[in-house]
Amino acid sequence: MSTPKAPTLAVLPSAKTNDASSDAATGLRVLQPSGWPMPKGYANGISAEGRIVVTGGVIGWDQHEHLPDGFLAQARQVLENIAAILAEGGARPEHLVRLTWYVVDMDEYLANLKELGRIYREIFGSHYPAMALVQVVRLVEKAARLEIEATAVVPG
Questions:
Q1: d(CA 109, CA 74)
Q2: Which residues on adjacent β-strands are paired with residue 48?
């Protein structure tokens, strides 16, 4: 019996995208429709071709299941955890194509944007995949302030 192949994503032609935003090293292309304002800190869309690496919902606990106090400390640990999961799958932060953020307090997120951006760039660099941000009533771990799901595509 043969081993099934991993699914692949095909880069489809899209109308009026900015070809200057494609990166041959990562196989990713930022999709920015003509005339749209440039997003800050995320991409409207990304096309990619390669092997998919997907995380579950990742929270900010360490290997001992300890959650640090505070939104920013948890955000730092979540991003470090995602980087570790990506590395385990042979991916790097620049392979990210999507992040979905779940926060329990949108105002807390917005009040910490500047420092959160600094932490993000420290861990992931200046690569900004497509992102969504959703406020939720609570997360499974009551003390968790945020949870992030990540999808990366490794060229190959």
A1: 12
A2: 28
Q: Report the pLDDT value the prediction gives residue 48, as an integer from 0 to 100.
A: 87
pLDDT tens for each residue of 111-135 = 999 999 999 999 999 999 999 999 9
In angstroms, the CA 28 to CA 127 distance is 11
CA–CA separation, 46 vs 21, rounded Å?
10
Query: pLDDT digit string (tens) for 89-107?
Result: 999 999 999 999 999 999 9
What does the alpha-carbon distance between residue 121 and residue 127 come to, in Å, rounded to a whole number? 8
Gyration radius of the chain over CA positions:
16
Q: In terms of Cα–Cα distance, which of 59, 22, 39, 33 is closest to 136?
A: 59
111-119, long-range: CB within 8 Å, 24+ apart, which pairs?
112/71, 112/72, 112/75, 115/72, 116/72, 116/75, 117/41, 119/72, 119/75, 119/76, 119/79
User: Which DSSP letter does residue 30 get?
Assistant: E
Closest CA to 144 of 43, 69, 49, 46: 69
